[in-house]
Write a structure and sequence with these properties.
Blueprint (H helix, E strand, L loop, with lengths): L6 E6 L9 E7 H13 L8 H7 L13 H19 L1
Antiparallel strand pairs: 1-2
């Protein structure tokens, strides 16, 4: 039996529109599983980082991430961009 997802969070960043990524979804248990399910259904990369999701879950929805989280989120965005480049090749 698979272990249920404890928490999940989703970020959105629109280059040229947003200064920093915004938290657009967060949840626990079934809600967390639904966030991941929707992301995968739309080919949105999923990165598992429980420490980061703990910090993100403390934010309000649609809040820009604080500067203290820039490095961690930048690493995730770099991962996503590298996946996109590989998919384009």
């Amino acid at each position: 039996m698979k272990k249920p997802t404890e928490k999940a969070a989703a970020l959105k960043y629109e280059h040229g529109k947003d200064f920093a990524p915004r938290l657009v979804a967060k949840g626990r248990g079934r809600v967390a599983e639904k966030i991941i399910e929707i992301a995968r259904a739309h080919d949105i990369p999923v990165e598992e980082d429980q420490e980061l999701v703990e910090f993100l879950s403390m934010l309000d929805l649609y809040q820009e991430i604080p500067s203290e989280m820039y490095i961690a989120v930048a690493e995730i965005l770099a991962f996503v961009y590298s996946l996109n480049k590989k998919a384009e090749s």
